[in-house]
Design a protein that fits this description.
Blueprint lengths: L1 H13 L3 E9 L2 E13 L8 E12 L2 E11 L5 E7 L4 E4 L19 H13 L19 E12 L2 E14 L1 E8 L4 E6 L6 E5 L6 H22 L8 E4 L2 E2 L11 E6 L2 E7 L11 E3 L3 E5 L1 E6 L6 H7 L2 E6 L4 H14 L5 E8 L15 H13 L4 E4 L5 H13 L3 E4 L7 H6 L4 E3 L2 H7 L15 H12 L3 E3 L2 H7 L1 E2 L16 H8 L2 E2 L3 H21 L14 H12 L4 H7 L2 H6 L17 E5 L12 E6 L2 E4 H6 L6
Helix pairs in contact: 3-5, 6-7, 9-10, 14-15
């Protein structure tokens, strides 16, 4: 027996190792790479000679370096035995001998490192391509991976054609990932949204083919969107009436307790009390007694990451969403699919992201000179983007060129305040809106105040900042709910502030429960108290506040944002107006949307209960009407894995 083991070890040492490198992109901008090696191994002698994958996934995200290393031990047929990852949250998975795992299974903890996905695909291909592939994640609630062959693409590398098989992979992340494999079992490329933002991996020698594969991936996304649309059909279209609901039209008028709203061809034809609006004979009617009818909600800070975002946002009542930075071609395709082909999703308004170049840049549209800035603005304008979004590393002369060109073309400018400016200077240079509250809080602090000192909104410095923003009609989207989620204390359960997590898909549940900061519960409460004091002071002074959830729990993050606004001192109606008419006004669309009035878009929601008494009732959307098409909200959520 001892001689046999020595012979196996000697044989394994003679086999060559397989190596490879993948270039990592975020929003199509190269930010790092993954290097892997697969070699024979006897690391688990009792299980025979197998394979060992060692991989290092390393990239820089806007100046922050992130590294994940992993070791996966497998049998020679890629059956996993042990996975060890070292990252911000190290994890280990051992495949037990008893009880025995399923007949077919794999072990993977997320979309990256990508080399582990490659071995998963090799396992799947050589084990009968099962429709569902159970995943040992240490949690029996984990959904099985669903891998589907979606098509083929041919690329040219060094003058020779290479045929790639294209797949979609569900339940590895929220939504479907797209992945390409070569005939020899190499991972050629992947499009994913692993961190809530678009990310691509491409075998380094195939880098020149990424634009072609990306276009194919966008087309695949649109095919996936159409497939979801065939599963979830509207219950009403064309002309119909909604009767009996409490009407909160968001104009500021007194609610109408027994209302009639008539919808025709995607528009509101009439709205008012039952005695004043006559339902035409034979018109289909939706009886809504006991419900509250409101305008559809506006999500003013999202990063639309995959077509599954559309049904998820509609399901909670979001009928208009502003994307604050993503991939040009995908966003245009998603917007057009919704507006022109009835794709499932909210109307999408687009803010075109521009940053300086270099490794730290955010996104693939960059500008190092004023002329490059102007050209980027023109490109976005030509494609129908409503806004420009400035980002961190832009230079002062480039910023001014961008804002001047945007204003010339009738566009507004939002974004992070670039690091060369404070908020005073950013607004002075042409910013109309500011993303994230921290840029506002900073200029409200008394000069020379100690780091970490509590912010007093009653100081001269705070009052001056607030008056400046009001005088310049600056719009602020605080994203307070994202701050709460991203840094919640490990001592605070997510359900205590975000009950929507209970019905979220497993992969989102894991992501957000694991998103914990180092602060104590007392410290996080103090931070939130300060943020709410700033929001309350801005609102009281008349500064426009619009709600957005950034990369929080899809859809539900917006509802939490509105709950926080009520805690900050808004009335429930004021919070609702911030997510309807105030947002519409901020985007110059108040004549088309934002209230329930004749002639406006038929974007409406029906809610069980009365959110004017309890803002939390906004979590009880039963029906959503998007551009005149009425859907069952729960069915929309189920189509992308949400249950409530």
């Amino acid at each position: 027996m001892k001689c046999s083991l020595i012979l196996l070890i000697a044989t394994a040492s003679l086999l060559p190792a397989e190596t490879g490198t993948l270039t990592i992109h975020m929003i199509l901008h190269a930010i790092g790479e993954e290097r892997y090696e697969i070699a024979p191994s006897n690391a688990l002698p009792d299980r025979g000679v197998g394979l060992r994958l060692r991989t290092t996934f390393e990239y820089t995200d806007r100046g922050n370096k992130r590294t994940t290393s992993a070791e996966l031990l497998m049998k020679s047929d890629y059956t996993p035995l042990h996975l060890d990852t070292k990252a911000q949250r190290p994890e280990k998975v051992d495949v037990p001998d008893s009880p025995a795992p399923p007949a077919r299974f794999f072990t993977i903890l997320g979309p990256s490192p990508f080399a582990i996905q490659m071995t998963m695909m090799r396992y799947w291909r050589t084990h009968g391509r099962p429709a569902l592939l159970p995943i040992l994640r240490g949690n029996p609630a984990a959904d099985p991976i669903r891998i589907e062959t979606a098509g083929h693409d041919s690329i040219i590398v060094n003058g020779r054609p290479i045929r790639l098989e294209r797949y979609t992979i569900a339940n590895l992340m929220f939504g479907r990932e797209i992945l390409w494999m070569s005939g020899t079992g190499d991972l050629a490329a992947a499009m994913t949204f692993a961190g809530g933002l678009p990310m691509e991996a491409v075998r380094t020698e195939y880098e020149a083919a990424l634009p072609q594969l990306y276009r194919s991936g966008v087309a695949q996304e649109m095919a996936d969107l159409a497939a979801i649309g065939r599963e979830v059909l509207p219950e009403r279209t064309g002309a119909f009436a909604i009767t009996g609901a409490r009407l909160v039209d968001a104009t500021g008028a007194t609610p109408i307790e027994d209302s009639v709203v008539i919808v025709r061809a995607g528009r509101i034809a009439a709205a008012g009390p039952r005695g004043a609006v006559v339902v035409p004979r034979g018109m289909p009617t939706v009886e809504a007694k006991g419900k509250t009818l409101l305008p559809g909600l506006w999500e003013m800070h999202t990063h639309f990451s995959g077509v599954e975002f559309g049904p998820a946002q509609l399901a909670v009542g979001i009928t208009t969403a502003r994307d604050c930075g993503g991939e040009f071609d995908y966003l245009v395709a998603q917007r057009d699919a919704v507006e022109k082909r009835h794709g499932l999703g909210p109307r999408l308004l687009l803010a075109g992201l521009i940053d300086a170049g270099g490794l730290n840049a955010f996104g693939h549209v960059t500008a190092e000179t004023p002329e490059e800035g102007r050209l980027a603005v023109r490109r976005y304008h030509h494609a129908g983007f409503e806004q420009i979004k400035l980002y961190t590393f832009l230079a002062p002369d480039v910023i001014r060129a961008i804002t001047t060109e945007a204003r010339r073309l009738g566009m507004t400018v939002t974004g992070h305040v670039p690091r060369v400016f404070n908020a005073y200077e950013g607004v002075g240079a042409g910013m109309d809106q500011i993303n994230h509250l921290n840029y506002v809080s900073t200029i409200m602090r008394t000069p020379g105040s100690a780091r970490g000192e509590p912010l007093d909104v009653g100081t001269d410095a705070a009052r001056r900042a607030i008056q400046f923003l009001k005088d310049h009609h600056t719009v602020v989207d605080p994203t307070a709910s994202w701050g709460e989620m991203a840094s919640h204390s490990k001592d605070v359960s997510v359900e205590s502030f975000e009950p929507g997590i209970a019905g979220a898909p497993f992969i989102l549940d894991v992501k957000f429960r694991g998103m914990q900061g180092n602060a104590t519960a007392v410290q996080t409460r103090a931070r939130m108290t300060e943020s709410l004091a700033v929001i309350g002071a801005l609102h009281k002074a008349g500064v426009a506040i619009v709600p957005g959830s950034d990369t929080g729990l899809v859809g539900y993050g917006l509802l939490r944002e509105l709950e926080l606004y009520v805690q900050a001192g808004m009335t429930p109606l004021e919070a609702i107006r911030s997510a309807t008419i105030v947002s519409a006004r901020a985007m110059g669309l108040e004549k088309d949307s934002g209230t329930i009035e004749a002639g406006k878009r038929a974007d409406l929601i029906l809610v069980d209960g009365n959110p004017l008494d309890n803002i939390g009732d906004l979590r009880k959307v039963s029906w959503v009407i998007a551009n005149g098409r009425l859907f069952d909200a729960a069915e929309l959520g189920r189509s992308v894995g949400f249950h409530r």
